[in-house]
């Protein structure tokens, strides 16, 4: 008779343990099922999804990074997001590096500066080719001495600028190959390729659509002027800009007279990404070099 209550108590304790284990497993599953933060498209050298930086600050930093890439070849990208939750900033940065693959393809000299504003965390992550120039200790010193003090004061643009100054100095001391763009060869080839894509694909689409509004001749003239503006906005040389206008007008006339039709789904947004890379017409000519291999080097910090 005495054993029955003891057995019942033992059974209840076992049930309680199993119930607690199931509850913990459910909570862990719920945490793991929380969606990861989406990685924004690589559209510029500095991307602020928090609207913290002023437009002129973004433009100044973008221009500085563009000039450094032209001179040294190294691609540096700054990304500011509200949070990286549920991941920590190191895991999020690794995903960004794997997705963007910044740095020259044959060298892999990319570097990421990721800032999670609401989390008050940031991370500097060099690709493997830059781990010698920016070792973990140096990255941590840049955060602690140059970036974090200014962030604590609410000066995000100043912190980013100061951090970039130190990082650029470290990279400049590394013996990296000269960028091919320094001689103008690579940039010129890229300009001609992009101009040809614009002429062959976008011009017929635009000319056909405008013909219904303005008539064929005026539509082709407007298309030609638009092609010239887009070529100029992409940073192409003056010769390409001057050539693009008459060529676009002529091609528009031919396209609107032809019997074949361009598929209507090939709008600007479609053809811009049909080659698997971002369009230079929408992002000012910036795209991934396709070479960054981020192996987990770098440092994280708080402010």
Number of helices: 10
Indicate the multimeric state: single chain
Q: What class would the helix/strand composition place it in?
A: alpha/beta
Spatial strand arrangement across the major sheet: 1-2-3-4-5
Q: What percentage of amino acids are in beta strands? A: 5-15%
CATH architecture of the largest domain: Roll
- How many independent structural domains? 2
What is the residue-mean pLDDT, rounded to a whole number? 77
Task: Give a short account of the largest sheet.
Answer: 5 strands, mixed
CATH topology of the largest domain: Diaminopimelate Epimerase, Chain A, domain 1
* Unreliable sequence segments: 182-186, 259-284
Assign the CATH class of the largest domain: Alpha Beta
- What percent of the residues sit in helical stretches (DSSP H or I)? 55-70%
Distance between the termini: 66 Å
Order of helices and strands: HEHEHEEHHHHHHHE
Shape: extended
Number-wise, the strands total 5
Q: Rg from C-alpha positions?
A: 27 Å
Structure at a glance:
By secondary structure, the chain is an alpha/beta fold.
Report on the structure:
- The protein has 303 residues and is α/β, with parallel strands linked by helices.
- 56% of the residues lie in helices and 9% in strands.
- The chain contains 10 helices and 5 strands; from the N terminus they run H-E-H-E-H-E-E-H-H-H-H-H-H-H-E.
- A 5-stranded mixed β-sheet has the order 1-2-3-4-5, sandwiched between helices.
- Helix 2 links the parallel strand 1 (46-48) and strand 2 (75-81).
- The longest helix has 31 residues, at 3-33.
């Amino acid at each position: 008779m005495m054993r029955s209550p003891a057995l019942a108590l033992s059974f209840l304790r076992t049930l309680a343990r199993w119930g607690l284990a199931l509850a913990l497993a459910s909570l862990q599953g719920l945490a793991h099922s929380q969606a990861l933060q989406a990685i924004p498209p690589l559209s510029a050298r500095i991307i602020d999804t928090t609207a913290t930086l002023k437009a002129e600050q973004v433009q100044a930093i973008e221009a500085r990074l563009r000039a450094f890439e032209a001179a040294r070849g190294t691609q540096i990208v700054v990304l500011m997001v509200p949070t990286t939750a549920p991941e920590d900033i190191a895991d999020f940065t690794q995903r960004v590096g794997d997705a963007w693959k910044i740095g020259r393809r044959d060298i892999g000299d990319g570097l990421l500066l990721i800032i999670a504003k609401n989390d008050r965390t940031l991370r500097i992550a060099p690709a493997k080719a830059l781990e010698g120039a920016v070792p973990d200790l140096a990255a941590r010193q840049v955060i602690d001495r140059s970036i974090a003090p200014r962030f604590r004061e609410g000066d995000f643009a100043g912190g980013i600028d100061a951090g970039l100054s130190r990082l650029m100095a470290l990279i400049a001391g590394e013996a990296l190959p000269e960028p091919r763009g320094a001689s103008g060869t690579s940039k010129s080839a890229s300009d001609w390729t992009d101009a040809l894509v614009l002429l062959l694909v976008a011009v017929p689409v635009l000319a056909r659509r405008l013909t219904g509004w303005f008539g064929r001749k005026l539509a082709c003239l407007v298309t030609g002027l638009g092609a010239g503006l887009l070529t100029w906005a992409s940073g192409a040389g003056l010769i390409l800009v001057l050539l693009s206008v008459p060529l676009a007008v002529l091609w528009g006339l031919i396209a609107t007279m032809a019997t074949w039709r361009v598929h209507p789904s090939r709008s600007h947004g479609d053809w811009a990404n049909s080659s698997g890379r971002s369009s230079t017409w929408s992002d000012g000519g910036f795209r991934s070099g396709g070479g960054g291999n981020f192996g987990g080097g770098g440092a994280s910090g708080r402010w």
